[in-house]
Specification:
- It is built from twelve helices and eight strands.
- It has about 400 residues and is of the alpha/beta class.
- β4 (about 300-310) and β5 form a beta hairpin.
- α6 (about 85-100) packs across α8.
- Mean pLDDT is about 80; it is low at about 1-5 and about 385-395.
Length: about 400
């Protein structure tokens, strides 16, 4: 569809006047520095709702950034022609809100909060010269609704894409349960038989026998790893959140993965020692998968850095390396089930990681690694439980 045509049609349907930009500029000049009061009132309302706070996975720092973003959007929305470029910006806002886990109801509520905050400020200041109070309030509500419709349209389109992906995961899950059950016992028999063969044969006397036994063991181990990943994916349940000592949590994951001596692993966390708030069993799976990926990428040695930070609202974990990295054209696919860039990869580790993180209402992203090399995976987990996620204690306790 033609974005410019869409904008014109929507302006007509929603009664946006032809002089909307001039009127918006009048409002901006009239509000002056008091425009910030609208933003402050919006976030004061937001802080009263746990559902809204849950989407701020980056904690207080993210709230401060978003405060500036809202102020910039408010200025841009009042001073625009509402053309194809504006449509594209609004659509991107909708896509970002979906990625951040913001429910459509919260987006609609946010529009209401903005309108109410603007109305209260207008009651105090009065309307711009030559304009009526009710007319100015209605104009503001119309332009907010215009932007919100475009954002929600993009939100719905992207949501459909996500539903399709979840349907594929559900199909893989049903298939995995059957396959895992059928393979687990035969693999156990193979592993036992290999152990017995090594006891009866002398691999040192015949290097060819030794090579074949090693290959068989590696193949069995890989098959077992695939079965384990499939079972982990199938058994994933709602997270049981509780306070977690992050330093001990990270140390346990490092011990479980056991990186080789030629790889240097460093850890950096908040000095305050504030605990995280998540399901430690599930998140161990996610963190260990990221660590194994980094170790496998650093074939021959290198550096891994694990960082964490936490505040009242969220926990962040970052695993970075200085390896070869991930090609740009592969980055969008690394979380897809059964996709692997490694010759012997299962293609399920990062799928499981994202499933665990999303079950917590969080997100996992890909960034440049150490010193601009390699890759970094960063996880953000909100502390406020979203609907369907059970918490083991209240944060106020």
């Amino acid at each position: 569809m033609n974005p410019d045509l869409d904008a014109q049609t929507l302006k007509r349907l929603m009664g946006i006047p032809s002089d909307a930009r001039d009127r918006g500029r009048e409002i901006l000049a009239h509000l002056g520095a008091r425009r910030g009061d609208v933003v402050e009132a919006f976030y004061a309302e937001l802080r009263g709702h746990a559902e809204a706070l849950a989407v701020f996975r980056g904690g207080e720092a993210q709230i401060e950034r978003q405060r500036g973003s809202l102020d910039a959007w408010l200025a841009a929305s009042l001073d625009t022609e509402r053309d194809a470029d504006h449509v594209a910006r609004c659509r991107r806002i909708g896509e970002v809100h979906l990625e951040a886990g913001v429910d459509e109801a919260l987006m609609l509520a946010g529009g209401t909060w903005l309108g109410a905050a603007f109305g209260r400020l207008l009651d105090e200041l009065g309307p711009p010269p030559g304009r009526g109070l009710a007319d100015t309030r209605e104009f503001f509500e119309r332009i907010v609704a215009f932007d919100l419709v475009l954002a929600l349209q993009a939100y719905a389109e992207r949501l459909q894409d996500r539903v399709s992906r979840l349907d594929r995961l559900a199909l893989i899950g049903r298939f995995s349960a059957t396959v895992s059950h059928e393979l687990k016992n035969p693999l156990g028999v193979l592993a036992t038989s290999l152990h017995l063969l090594r006891g009866h044969l002398d691999p040192a006397a015949d290097p060819k026998v030794a090579r074949h036994l090693d290959r068989m063991e590696r193949s069995v181990d890989r098959a077992r790893s695939i079965v384990t990943s499939l079972l982990d994916l199938v058994r994933l349940k709602e997270p049981a959140r509780r306070p977690v000592d992050l330093a001990k949590f990270v140390a346990a994951a490092i011990e479980a993965v056991a990186p080789p001596a030629e790889i240097t692993v460093t850890c950096r966390g908040d000095e305050g020692g504030q605990p995280g708030y998540f399901d430690p069993t599930q998140m161990r799976l996610a963190l260990e998968n990221l660590l194994r990926n980094a170790v496998e990428a650093l074939d021959g040695g290198g550096r891994i850095e694990i960082r964490w930070r936490t505040d009242t609202f969220a926990t962040a974990l970052r695993v970075a390396d200085d390896g070869p990295g991930i090609p740009e054209d592969q980055r969008l696919r690394v979380f897809e089930p059964l996709h692997s860039g490694k010759p012997f990869g299962t293609g399920l580790g990062l799928t499981l990681t994202r499933s665990v993180v999303e079950a917590h209402g969080g997100e996992v992203g890909i960034h440049p690694g150490l010193d601009g090399r390699g890759v970094a995976f960063e996880i953000h987990l909100p502390h406020f439980a979203l609907p369907g996620v059970r918490a083991t204690r209240d944060l106020d306790e």
